[in-house]
């Protein structure tokens, strides 16, 4: 089959590697003149690692990234634990992989090229018409299938997502020589739900040997200009007062441009395909949620793998493959979106009651068996079957 993929992000490159590896002729169109990652660090959960392993790149990811065995969050004033999830709570030694987007991008980009995919930068796709890809430089096609992996800014997806009230500032910094924080845990501190700051160890950035980490700072979606106007020194003072261990990380931010503002939205396409299956949406073009459960990149990887499996089993019937892909991913996506929505209001909102409920009721309950095991599976990404009917 001839397949066009719009967008050379994580989902698009994973789909390209999987589909080209299955023998299809794959062309990836990306709007940037030189395809490149956007953002800082992320966590590949065990379900995402399964996809990377299937693509033959898990070992490369492990070499570049950093294993995370625990997520620990504390309340800023009291220091009490209000989040504590260990990946191996069910008794199985699992982990998340903290990794920089640039490292994951390079790994998947190389995998797509090795599999035989063609990548065309500088092609901003404007629309798709009956299998034809229309971009600023002309038209290509027709393709048997077009995969929309162009993310939250997709021009091809009909989704109307709801913007969330809070986003976050992200940056990549060196792991300080003087810190007591462990390098195998994601650490977070909260002041009620209107302040959340965290440190995620992410291994190495391509071309550098120093250990890196991603830091983040929760912020109302419309407050970025105010944050800039207040100045970095005021921010560093506030952050260090909330969490003294954050100081050596924040000290490395000397220019506001080092911090990238990420805004989040929530939405789902009820049917992530159209035109008889010739246009299929994956990743953020098909569904979006807040990053509370660390599942964004994993969802894109799972979509790509589910689509490749569906095409293989449907033996070239694109309409059937599109339906099978949508059915396989439906309940996993909806379940995690619902849980993400539930967690978001507890950790990123202006509410004063929900943080009290989180700290005084929900967290103590989360430490009572069998909930630790369930929370571990929730974070690992397999509390619900990730591939549904396409599972082995």
Describe the structure.
- By secondary structure, the protein is α+β, with helices and mostly antiparallel strands.
- It has a single domain, classed as 3-Layer(bba) Sandwich (FAD/NAD(P)-binding domain), CATH 3.50.50.60.
- The protein has eleven helices and 22 strands.
Which structural class should the secondary elements be placed in?
alpha+beta
As a percent range, the share of helical residues equals: 25-40%
Beta-strand portion reads 25-35%
Q: Any idea what the shape is?
A: globular
Unreliable spans? none
CATH C-level name: Alpha Beta
According to CATH, the fold-level topology is FAD/NAD(P)-binding domain
CATH architecture: 3-Layer(bba) Sandwich
Q: What's the number of helices?
A: 11
List the helices and strands and how they pair.
Blueprint (H helix, E strand, L loop, with lengths): L1 E5 L3 H12 L3 E5 L11 E4 L1 H9 L3 H7 L1 E3 L1 E6 L5 E6 L9 E5 H15 L2 E3 L4 E5 L2 E4 L2 E3 L4 E4 L13 E2 L2 E9 L10 E7 L3 E9 L8 E9 L3 H7 L1 H11 L4 H4 L9 E3 L2 E4 L4 E2 L4 E3 L5 E2 L7 H19 L3 H30 L5 H14 L4 H10 L12
Parallel strand pairs: 1-2, 1-12, 2-8, 5-15, 12-21
Antiparallel strand pairs: 3-7, 4-7, 5-6, 9-10, 10-11, 13-19, 14-17, 14-18, 15-16, 16-17, 19-22, 20-21
Helix pairs in contact: 1-4, 1-8, 2-8, 8-9
